[in-house]
Design goal:
alpha/beta, 4 strands, 18% strand, globular, disordered N terminus
């Protein structure tokens, strides 16, 4: 987007983005979260799913490995595991340390992305090299509601450390 908030699309085949998904007892939601990543109009180059010591006898970790096998040809997928539950922040930090792409995007295992999330945010970041991070509001949508329409223009504002 230019400074007036109008779109300009770079349209890469994939974006140099590492998606980090902390996973704690996420067997009921991780497939939807991962599916939302795989259905991006501009897919990321890497997905890291971090099993956060779920304490469920390895069932969550097993599912993550199964999903990796099933979807490996679509995008590079890595499964990492913490030995004990340390919380989402620790899992995100582990993913960040292992990420190999210049841009990082966080997705919670119980959330899903709009199909153009990476396309829009990556293009905005590439057009604004002065920005160290970017974010967007969230929207709660029921599964039966479908995908919401996006605005034609976007606005940006600085965010302070406070």
């Amino acid at each position: 987007m230019n400074d007036q908030g109008q779109r300009h699309v770079l349209s890469p085949i994939s974006a140099p983005v590492s998606v980090i998904i902390p996973c704690y007892q996420c067997r009921g939601t991780i497939e939807r979260a991962l599916r939302s990543v795989l259905r991006q109009s501009v897919p990321p180059e890497e997905v890291l799913m971090i099993e956060d010591g779920s304490g469920d006898g390895g069932r969550t970790l097993s599912l993550l490995h199964h999903l990796k096998q099933r979807h490996q040809g679509k995008v590079e997928i890595k499964v990492l595991a913490l030995r004990e539950n340390r919380g989402a922040a620790a899992a995100r930090n582990m993913g960040w340390e292992e990420a190999r792409r210049p841009f990082v995007a966080f997705l919670d295992a119980d959330d899903a992305w709009h199909p153009r999330k990476i396309e829009i945010q990556y293009n905005w970041m590439k057009g604004h090299a002065e920005a160290a991070l970017s974010g967007h509001p969230r929207l709660f949508v029921r599964e039966d509601e479908g995908i919401c329409a996006l605005p034609d223009q976007w606005s940006a504002r600085p965010v302070s450390a406070k």
